[in-house]
Amino acid sequence: MVKIAKRRKSISAVRHTEETIQKCMEYVKSGKKSMYAACKLLKLPMSTVRYRMSDRWKHKNVSGPRSVLTKEEEQQIVDWLIGMQERGYPITKNGLKFKVGEFLSANPRETPFKNNRPGRKWFGAFMRRNPGFSLRTPETVSSASARVSEGDIRGWFRSIRGWLEKHDMLEILDCPERVFNGDETSFYLHPKSKEVLARTGSRNVYEVEQAPGKQNVTVMFAFSAAGCIVPPHVILPGKRLRKEVIAGFPDAWGIGQSERGWMDVNNFRSYIQNILHPFLVQQNVVFPVIFFVDGHASHKSLEVADLCLSLGIVLISLYPNTTHITQPADVAVFKPLKDEWRRGVEQWRSDHHGEILTLVHFGFVDCVHLNLIMWTTASVSRGHAMLPKNLRPRITKLIRQLNWHLHHYHLNMIHSPLLIYNPPR
To answer: Where does the record place the HTH CENPB-type domain (predicted)?
Structure first.
């Protein structure tokens, strides 16, 4: 007799509530019950609970290898990219990779990257995960000062104001002692004479160089809108600092060196860490503070950005090619300062006839010291002869229409009494 197989009744899958599963997982995680006991009590399959507690469940919607950074960590990187762009320091592709590499070195974990620095594939995946970013070629401006319009500067003011408002820092602009401007300038050891006396009819008038003709010293200055002067930072050319050269400078000044005597990342970082920040602390300035600088490469480095962030210094880039308007140091200080430097060098030559002015003598020239800076800025405050004729109307027009408090920054730099910072020796 042929046996007829009975068809099994279909059993629908039992649906367990999320609340029950979470309760079971809590029992297991807290150690109150074993997985077997918890599942038996709540009538749940162990396979279900085991799957829900595994990494497979956490990454069930993610295909491919697991991301090296967590969602929270990657969001921090995204916020950093946005903040740097809004402050005028957009980050390159290599800059992003370098930043991630630094983060992974500071937070060690197993990665597929060589030296913790991600490569091309990671960058492509990052861009797919963050479609709000795209690679753009930054605008380069040649003969730019002539092409910068009032609308460009208005847009820059609005952008900076919006960024400060977004980060609850707008009130800083009402405190001139918390707004700073920094810039570098160079002093030639043999400044070219403007005019000399010579016999009428002389066809060629020569001047023997009394110092290396093209050798110059870069000095970093910073001023607050309240009139405070931060001790300068001198950058000497060469590979090492000579004691006899250092001896000529005041103790409060920063001294650094680079191969050509130009500002670089190491010197700017040293200035921020060893000169500017101690000055702010000594003066009891409330943090955070704003520090406006130009777009020089040394000001854009990731190391400097991270250092400023940790110290409560908001580094903001001035709009490119507008130093004749937005850079108070260029507008009101450096021109008379260099004129006085030229006079100081002439006086030194007169007192040291036949000697050659070298780096050893640089710090001993009287006009290098801070009392000269005080005299120079004070002379500008007594009258406006050092300002371009139409500079003040241009600034005033921009400030008035934008309802922008930065007029303290530009105009108080000219009117305020000065405070010299001399730290204890």
So the answer is: 61-136
